[in-house]
Specification:
The structure is a single chain. 28% of the residues lie in helices and 25% in strands. It has 326 residues and is of the alpha/beta class. The protein has two domains: 197 residues, Rossmann fold (3-Layer(aba) Sandwich), CATH 3.40.50.170; 109 residues, Methionyl-tRNA Fmet Formyltransferase, Chain A, domain 2 (Roll). The strands form three sheets. A seven-stranded mixed β-sheet has the order 5-2-1-6-7-8-9. Strands 10, 11, 12, 13, 14 and 15 form a six-stranded antiparallel β-sheet that branches. Strands 3-4 form a two-stranded antiparallel sheet. It starts with a strand and ends in an 11-residue tail after the last helix.
């Protein structure tokens, strides 16, 4: 099969490498987003997909806009059998979709129609899902609404954060794309329509998504910590400053150290969402639904990340102080 590969971030890299290693796939070139400034120094850097393409001596095309007329001319000239598109970063205009014989084949990180959109891995974890999966589909003019080709279920680990799950999914997706392309070429795979009534949305993340709502349960807060790693993270305020937090749900009050439960201020602090209680090495935050978060580390705005104990000592923390706006 003669194919073009369209993608940008690390998530797309394993599939590109996988296809390049198989002689039955003739990779004609790569389309990737333009080089952008990245990191603290805002140095211009190439995308992970472009890096792999250059190492493989593939032609690389980086249009500012995929809808530009020269892109259509390029695709018509190359006439690929299929275009594999993974996390490219732009919407493909409808007039380009019919150019390749087998269409544009996308690897999406959810079991469609659940979690359509830009951040399916993040929202699945943040919403407390224990299972997710991968879908290959033929894209159409909608947002992740095209016909489903193949799907593979995957478990989400109870402590797994978004970067770890995304890395596992990207590796698992490579053979799934290969199987999809072989099936299309052999005529053994036929797209099946999605049930749009069952669709859910996984919108692009915003900074505000990371703000902790202390009325939520400790498990709900923990899931959002895992799902929104590394950005926007989970943050709140402390003495007027923004701070990012890491922690895990405490099993129950009976599991708390005896000296904490014996503290006279425990009962009152325990009933106020966002209130801190504990001492020495163990610090907890009261959450909604009569739950508590065991605080592991804190990063105050403009400072380095420190353990909960270091934070408490440095802040001269008093039991019943609160996270969150007063």
């Amino acid at each position: 099969m003669r194919l073009l590969f369209c993608g940008t971030p690390q998530f797309a890299v394993p599939t590109l490498k996988h296809l390049l290693a198989r002689p039955e796939f003739d990779v004609l070139g790569v389309i990737s987003q333009p080089d952008r400034p990245r990191g603290r120094g805002q140095q211009i850097s190439v995308s992970p997909v472009k890096d792999v393409a250059l190492a493989a001596h593939l032609p690389v095309h980086q249009p500012e806009k995929i809808r530009a007329p020269e892109v259509q001319q390029l695709l018509e000239r190359l006439a690929p059998d299929v275009i594999v598109i993974i996390a490219y970063g732009q919407i493909i205009p409808a007039r380009l979709l019919s150019i390749p014989k087998h269409g544009w084949i996308n690897l999406h990180a959810s079991l469609l129609p659940k979690y359509r959109g830009a951040a399916p891995v993040h929202w699945a974890i943040a919403n407390g899902e224990t299972q997710t999966g991968l879908t290959t589909m033929r894209i159409d003019a909608g947002m992740d609404t095209g016909g489903i080709l193949l799907q593979r279920e995957m478990e989400i680990g109870p402590a797994e954060a978004a970067p770890e799950l995304a890395a596992r999914m990207s590796e698992a997706g490579a053979p799934l794309v290969e199987e999809t392309l072989r099936g299309l070429d052999a005529g053994t795979i036929v797209p099946r329509p999605q049930n749009h009534a069952e669709a859910t949305i996984a919108p692009i993340l915003k900074k505000e998504d990371g703000r902790i709502a202390w009325n939520s349960s400790a498990l709900e807060i923990y899931n959002r910590m895992r799902g929104f790693a590394p950005w926007p993270g989970a943050y709140t305020t402390f003495r007027g400053q923004t701070c990012h937090l890491w922690g895990e749900p405490a099993a129950n009050d009976a599991a708390l150290p005896a000296e904490i439960r014996a503290d006279p201020s425990f009962a009152s602090a325990r009933s106020v969402p966002g209130a801190l209680f504990g001492g020495k090495w163990d610090w907890f935050v009261a959450c909604g639904k009569a739950t508590a978060l065991r605080l592991q580390s804190v990063k105050l705005e403009g400072r380095k990340q420190v353990s909960a104990a270091e934070f408490a000592n440095g802040a001269r923390l008093k039991s019943a102080e609160r996270f969150g706006d007063m």
